[in-house]
């Protein structure tokens, strides 16, 4: 029996599911070239290049960027630039911290026995089994109660007053990212051959040198894939950010959500298309890295 | 002190795990406890929390009302109970639909030539990593009265000479269901694929040698061995669907209110954090009960980490 045989039913279902997965994305990209500013129906591509933007009613007749008019508008949009900056700042900071402390926790849980081990291990599963909104409003309550109490008690005024912002978003992101890093690194450590470390110790290396020269290089692929996962989770997060952000800490998902509730121009589609392209390149890079790693035996 | 640390394995382990454990304790466990405490409190006139012990929020959530049409002092108002039931049934329907769409695709990928598998998986990852909000927006554009789906149906109907008025698809429960299925489909495909791919091919030879046909082989070999993937996928789909509010917010308009919308509005519009906390706690308890019984029956596989 041929293990690669697939029935026509499976093939037909597969094609349908892929169409279902990609139809919305294709539509989104197509509308980013829409000549109609109202963006309700697709009125064709913006036809021509010209020195300045020429409008006819709600239709863009020509633009310095031609069909890419909405992408040029997007690049001039200060709110988008600010939101993108916030998103990246939060994602980078949170990824670095969560990767370091998550890897430490994975090592502890896999290698050591200590009193609070069951508690530490259990707490890693919380973000998986509890809906994000429950975590979000819990963190919101904590911050607002603590900040309110501190502002009143210490009579903080003006810019000294504590409020939600980049710091609260980053701290909350770390809370839901750490478990994923720790679990991924832990999975790596399960199949880890301890004899290399023992050899290093026998040869006179102390614990720190053993860790830096033997353990870390061996678990590095796991640490990196944990970090990448954490980074993408942070970029993508909506719910936790929604409840913990404040003035000046709007991220891209929050910005897009805000637009959806007001007027939608093809600029939103252009932003989405850029985002999809970035995701495409990032996932492609990860795949290539993983393939390379699988090929070379470690 | 340092010497003790160097010698005690237990102290080293505690120290390594400490930052993560403290972080999770402060930002996950304390908030959950605080939510529970607030849910027994009362709302002050300016929207703050008065800490006391009252079950009012829970009683209200389960239908006790003092605003009765018939003029009675108290009556049963099913408003919130219905919201909870609607969320449960939507999460159930979404999960069933997602399994039935994800399974054939995962099976197709697992039975592809090993060299092509990565490409097919890559094609699943692109929609998965496209932002959640952007994906809802994409469906908003497709489902609109002037959207692509109505245009295509209209075009087919025109060819067949059947009169057609565009369908109102946006802001209906169906739109929310489609949006949820789309959002969470990749979370089911990946774990099912992982468990299908692990199946030892010699089992199929054994099944064929023993005279099983392909349907019997599927039911007796493939399906049972892929259950860990289905279980992991169900947890990754069911729990987030229960708590999501963006999909119903954007694709359901104000027509489809789920428990997520209820909680969000208590915190942002209605300004009653105590009632919102009670709803949030009930949501958490509901998902924990479902997860507990489900995993006790089928086990908690390592497939959960792959997505």
How would you portray this structure in words?
- Chain A has two domains: 8-71, no CATH class; 78-262, MetI-like (MetI-like fold, Orthogonal Bundle).
- Chain A has twelve helices and three strands; from the N terminus they run H-E-E-E-H-H-H-H-H-H-H-H-H-H-H.
- Chain A has helices at residues 8-31, 69-76, 78-111, 117-124, 126-129, 132-153, 166-190, 195-202, 207-236, 239-244, 252-260, 266-295, and strands spanning 48-49, 54-56, 59-63.
- A three-stranded mixed beta sheet of chain A has the order 1-3-2, with no helix packed on it.
- In chain A, a hairpin with a 2-residue loop joins strand 2 and strand 3 (59-63).
- In chain A, 39% of the residues are buried.
- The mean pLDDT of chain A is 87.
- In chain B, a hairpin with a 5-residue loop joins strand 1 (42-43) and strand 2 (49-50).
- The two termini of chain B are 43 Å apart.
- A two-stranded antiparallel ribbon of chain B has the order 1-2. Chain B has a two-stranded antiparallel sheet with strand order 3-4.
- At the A-B interface, helix 1, helix 3, helix 4, helix 5 and helix 6 of A face helix 2, helix 4, helix 5, helix 6 and helix 8 of B.
């Amino acid at each position: 029996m041929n293990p690669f045989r697939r029935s026509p039913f499976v093939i037909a279902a597969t094609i349908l599911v892929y169409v279902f997965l990609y139809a919305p994305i294709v539509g989104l990209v197509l509308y980013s070239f829409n000549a109609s500013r109202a963006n309700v129906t697709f009125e064709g591509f913006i036809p021509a290049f010209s020195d300045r933007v020429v409008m006819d009613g709600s239709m863009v007749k020509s633009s310095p960027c031609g069909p890419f008019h909405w992408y040029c508008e997007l690049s001039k949009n200060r709110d988008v630039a600010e939101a993108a900056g916030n998103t990246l700042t939060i994602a980078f900071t949170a990824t670095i911290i969560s990767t370091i402390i998550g890897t430490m926790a994975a090592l502890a849980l896999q290698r050591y026995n200590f009193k609070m081990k069951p508690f530490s291990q259990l707490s890693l599963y919380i973000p998986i089994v509890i809906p994000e909104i429950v975590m979000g409003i819990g963190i919101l309550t904590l911050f607002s109660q603590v900040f309110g109490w501190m502002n009143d008690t210490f009579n903080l005024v003006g810019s000294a007053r504590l409020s939600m912002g980049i710091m609260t978003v980053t701290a909350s992101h770390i809370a839901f990212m750490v478990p994923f890093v720790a679990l991924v690194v832990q999975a790596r450590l399960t199949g880890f051959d301890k004899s290399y470390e023992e050899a290093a110790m026998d040869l006179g290396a102390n614990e720190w040198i053993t860790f830096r020269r033997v353990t870390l290089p061996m678990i590095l692929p796991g640490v990196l894939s944990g970090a990448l996962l954490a980074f993408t989770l942070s970029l993508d997060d909506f719910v936790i950010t929604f409840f913990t952000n404040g003035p000046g800490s709007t991220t891209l998902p929050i910005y897009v959500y805000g637009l959806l509730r007001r007027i939608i121009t093809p600029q939103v589609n252009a932003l989405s298309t850029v985002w999809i392209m970035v995701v495409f390149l990032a996932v492609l890079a990860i795949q290539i890295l993983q393939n390379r790693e699988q090929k070379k035996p470690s | 002190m340092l010497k003790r640390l160097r010698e005690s394995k237990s102290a080293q382990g505690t120290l390594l795990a400490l930052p993560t454990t403290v972080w999770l304790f402060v930002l996950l466990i304390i908030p959950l406890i605080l939510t529970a405490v607030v849910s027994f409190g009362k709302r002050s006139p300016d929207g703050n929390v008065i800490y006391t012990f009252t079950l009012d929020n829970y009683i209200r959530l389960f239908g006790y009302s003092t605003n009765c049409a018939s003029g009675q002092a108290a009556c049963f108002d099913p408003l919130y109970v219905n919201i909870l039931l609607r969320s449960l049934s939507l999460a159930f329907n979404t999960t069933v639909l997602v399994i039935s769409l994800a399974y054939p695709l995962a099976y197709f990928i697992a039975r592809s030539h090993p060299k092509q598998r990565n490409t097919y998986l890559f094609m699943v990852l692109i929609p998965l990593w496209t932002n959640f909000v952007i994906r809802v927006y994409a469906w908003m554009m497709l489902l609109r009265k002037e959207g692509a789906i109505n245009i295509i149906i209209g075009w087919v109907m025109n060819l067949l000479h059947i009169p057609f008025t565009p369908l109102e698809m946006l802001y209906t429960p169906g739109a929310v269901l489609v949006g949820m299925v789309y959002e969470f489909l990749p979370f089911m495909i990946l774990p099912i694929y992982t468990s299908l791919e692990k199946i030892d091919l010699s089992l199929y030879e054994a099944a064929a040698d023993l005279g099983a046909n392909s349907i019997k082989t599927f039911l007796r070999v493939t399906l049972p061995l892929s259950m860990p993937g289905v279980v992991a996928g169900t947890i990754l789909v069911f729990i987030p669907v229960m708590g999501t509010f963006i999909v119903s917010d954007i694709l359901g308009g104000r027509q489809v209110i789920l428990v997520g919308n209820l909680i969000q509005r208590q915190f942002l519009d209605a300004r009653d954090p105590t009632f919102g906390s009670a709803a949030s706690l009930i949501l958490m308890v509901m998902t924990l009960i479902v997860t507990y019984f489900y995993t006790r029956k089928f086990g908690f596989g390592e497939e959960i980490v792959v997505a």
